[in-house]
Design brief:
Blueprint (H helix, E strand, L loop, with lengths): L4 E7 L6 H15 L3 E7 L6 H11 L3 E5 L6 H11 L4 E4 L11 H9 L4 E9 L4 H17 L8 E8 H8 L8 H8 L3 E8 L11 H15 L2 H29 L5 H35 L16
Parallel strand pairs: 1-2, 1-4, 2-3, 5-7
Antiparallel strand pairs: 4-6, 5-6
Helix pairs in contact: 6-7, 9-10
The chain binds uridine-5'-diphosphate and magnesium ion.
């Protein structure tokens, strides 16, 4: 039967939680009373996750599993889920029960009322280190500023998206994926559901600092050209200061003052300013090449009225 809901669960070394996750997800999805599929994506786990997923798919007709040949990363696992999901509404949820499945019915209700992307926004983060809380909060502020407020704060990938929005994301071939940014960029009718993020049920996080930094960089560099603009601004700033210094030194020269050291300082500022401005100009071209090479769609149609259905 064609499922209404698809639930994508990316899993990497989650042998300790996956059965519990399956139990809780199944309970929630059953209570919602509509056909559903749970799509587990094993991201090249080195423990027994794949074996457990094989068993689950034998036991439960609602289970589908995709097994990766190697670890490709969380964002790639979710992307595969989007490619294989067949439901009208697609839920993305972590395997470790940090995102409570019980929030899904609230998301579905907003979807029924017309929202096309319902993202979970974290009220509280339980059981996370002070380091994670502080860096996450600072990062979301910087990201919001860099992207002109496009990416909502304190949202991860826990969300429910309409098929239409999912299809747009599937049509974006970029490799350095920051899905929450891509959904924000795509637009559509977006709504938030506030929730408390729980502790990890068992096991340990596989999001290493390195993976986290890569994700953070993708968020900024894939959705903001501001870093390139800083170079130009810095260059122009240096040129401006060297210009002012030049005038001051000229006046000082008229009155017989101004040491050679100041002239050297002025020349250094001039040179640095020229180099940085030139880099900024090169950066503008690179930004355009980057923009073209990502191959993002120029526009996204949410409805076309008065056309024949085919
Ligand atoms: N995950 C994945 N591939 C990875 C790392 C993590 O698919 O390389 C999955 C993991 O199984 C979980 C989700 O991504 O479902 C979030 O990971 P984790 O809980 O380790 O990260 P945290 O919650 O600490 O940010
Ligand atoms: Mg987690």
């Amino acid at each position: 039967m064609q499922p209404v809901f698809s639930v994508i669960v990316p899993c990497y070394n989650e042998e300790e939680v996956i059965r519990e996750t399956h139990k809780r997800l199944t309970k929630t999805m059953r209570e919602m009373g509509e056909p559903y599929e749970i799509l587990y994506v094993d991201d090249g786990s080195r423990d027994d996750t794949a074996q457990i997923l094989r068993e689950l798919s034998d036991e439960d007709a609602n289970v589908r599993a995709i097994l990766f040949a190697r670890n490709a990363g969380h964002q790639s696992a979710v992307t595969a889920g989007l490619d294989y999901a067949t439901g009208d509404a697609i839920v993305i949820i972590d395997a470790d029960l940090q995102d409570p499945p019980e929030v899904i019915p609230l998301m579905a209700e907003k979807w029924r009322n017309g929202a096309q992307v319902v993202f979970g926004q974290r009220k509280k983060r339980d059981g996370e280190t002070a380091f994670k809380k502080i860096t996450a909060s600072a990062y979301y502020k910087i990201l919001a500023w860099m992207t002109g407020g496009m990416v909502p704060r304190d949202t991860g990938d826990f969300r429910l998206v309409d098929r239409k929005a999912a299809d747009v994301i599937r049509g974006m071939p970029e490799h350095n994926r920051f899905l929450r940014g891509m959904f924000a960029w795509a637009g559509f009718k977006q709504e938030a559901v506030l929730y408390d993020r729980d502790k990890r049920f068992a096991g340990k996080t596989e999001y290493t600092l390195k993976k986290m930094l890569k994700l953070a960089a993708d968020g900024i560099f894939s959705f903001s050209m501001k870093p390139l603009k800083f170079i130009t601004l810095l260059g122009l700033g240096f040129l401006g200061i060297s210009g002012i210094l030049f005038l001051i030194l000229l006046i000082a020269l008229l009155f017989g003052g101004g040491s050679g050291l100041w002239w050297i300082a002025m020349l250094m500022l001039l040179c640095t300013g020229c180099v940085l401005s030139a880099l900024g100009i090169v950066g503008e071209y690179i930004a355009r090449i980057y923009d073209e090479s990502r191959g993002r769609p120029l526009y996204i149609v949410t409805e076309a009225l008065g056309f024949e259905e085919n």
